[in-house]
Amino acid sequence: MASTEEILAGLAEILNEVADVAPEDVSVEKSFTDDLDVDSLSMVEVAMAAEEKFGVKIPDEELPKLKTVGDAVSYIESNHS
Amino acid sequence: MTTLSTAPRPAGSRVAGFGHYQPPTVVTNADIIARGVETNDEWIQSRVGIAERRFAMDETMLDMAEAASSKALANSGIAATDIDLVILATCTSEQQVPGGAATLASRLGIAAPGAYDLNAACAGFVYGLTSASNAIIAGQARNVLVVGSEKLTDYVDLFDRSTGIIFADGAGAAVVTVSDSARIGPVVWGSDGDNADAIVTDPVSVTLRQEGQTVFRWATSTMGDVSARACAAAGIEPSDLAGFVPHQANLRIIDLVAKKLGAANAVVARDIVTSGNTSSASIPLALSKMLERGEIGSGTPVLLVGFGAGLTYAAQVILAP
């Protein structure tokens, strides 16, 4: 099972790949939309990449609830297999 | 036991010519914003990749179908009087009854062909092309006119930010005929009715609604594989493709699917930038323009991939006319 740090690092990698976000900008309190400029379609790409990386399902209806990087880390922690 | 005779069957089918029509009225992102839609140019270009689109002001869906068909007939060198089947792919007919195909044929001077409309939304043109090719290979038709024509602006709330900036009007057509070798590959097609709600016309307002994220996820996660399977079915590698013409739904979907397919030598259709999303018209419209500009050589393989409401999809390799 991945640690919180590993999930955060994994998300930073995905955000860099999908939306060109600098890994040093990624921290739990950052908002995807307001701080990292990740739009709704990029969020789908992030979710699909995270599903593959962490073996977790992130349905589209969950996406609006994942406002910050921390929300996504918690969701992955509590749902991954 | 009684057996029935079958029609003589040719060795294959081919596209003899494409044609297209776009209304002259250009609507830029600035024009959309000036109407009072809450959006901006940067938002539209980054989400969907559209800079401008065409709106039909005076033309009907059938007018556009007729104009595109006339050009396809002229480019094919096949006379209208020799067409024996007309397939009209559209999801924006003005009338439920009658279908438009017979009227279209009559307007073009095609006498008494088989004629029917086909609604597979944005996948409609490829479904039509497959149906045309299959009719020819089965010996049931010799020269088929296939048209994708849409007046989506009749079915769009122009103030809805998720659809009003995307959908537009236009038409594209192809003439398909008998061939002494297979120049239209096997289709890879399917559907996903579990996601029927993702793109619908609202029963009350009769305007289109779509769940952008659902469609984006479905298209980007499945169309790369569908594209690769269509290449394999035709016996070619993605690197052999001279052209890749996916449905012009969203530039980000187009780029992601092209990247997954890895068609390194193909010109990728990006007609959405200046034409918007014209549903069943988008593939023949984009390809007809690419051929006109000389971007794709005659006889080279081109992959067409339609996908949209239903959800439905269809992919097929053809050799360019």
What do you see in this structure?
The complex is a heterodimer of chains A (81) and B (321). By secondary structure, chain A is mainly α. Chain A has helices spanning 4-19, 40-54, 69-79. In chain A, helix 1 (4-19) crosses helix 2 and helix 1 crosses helix 3 (69-79). The model of chain A has no long low-confidence stretch (mean pLDDT 92). Chain B has 321 residues and is α/β, with parallel strands linked by helices. Chain B has 2 domains: 12-179, Peroxisomal Thiolase, Chain A, domain 1, CATH 3.40.47.10; 188-319, Thiolase/Chalcone synthase (Peroxisomal Thiolase, Chain A, domain 1, 3-Layer(aba) Sandwich), CATH 3.40.47. Chain B contains 9 helices and 14 strands. A 5-stranded mixed β-sheet of chain B has the order 1-7-6-4-5, sandwiched between helices. A 5-stranded mixed β-sheet of chain B has the order 8-14-13-11-12, sandwiched between helices. In chain B, strands 2-3 form a two-stranded antiparallel sheet. In chain B, a hairpin with a 6-residue loop joins strand 9 (199-201) and strand 10. Chain B is globular, with a radius of gyration of 19 Å. The mean pLDDT of chain B is 95.
Gyration radius of chain A, in Å: 11 Å
- Examine the coordinates and then state which fold CATH places here, giving the name of the CATH topology of the largest domain in chain B: Peroxisomal Thiolase, Chain A, domain 1
Number of domains of chain B: 2
User: Which regions of chain B have little confidence, pLDDT < 50, spanning 5+ residues?
Assistant: none
Describe the structure using short key phrases.
heterodimer; A: 81 residues; mainly alpha; Non-ribosomal Peptide Synthetase Peptidyl Carrier Protein, Chain A; 3 helices; 52% helix; globular; B: 321 residues; alpha/beta; Peroxisomal Thiolase, Chain A, domain 1; five-stranded mixed sheet
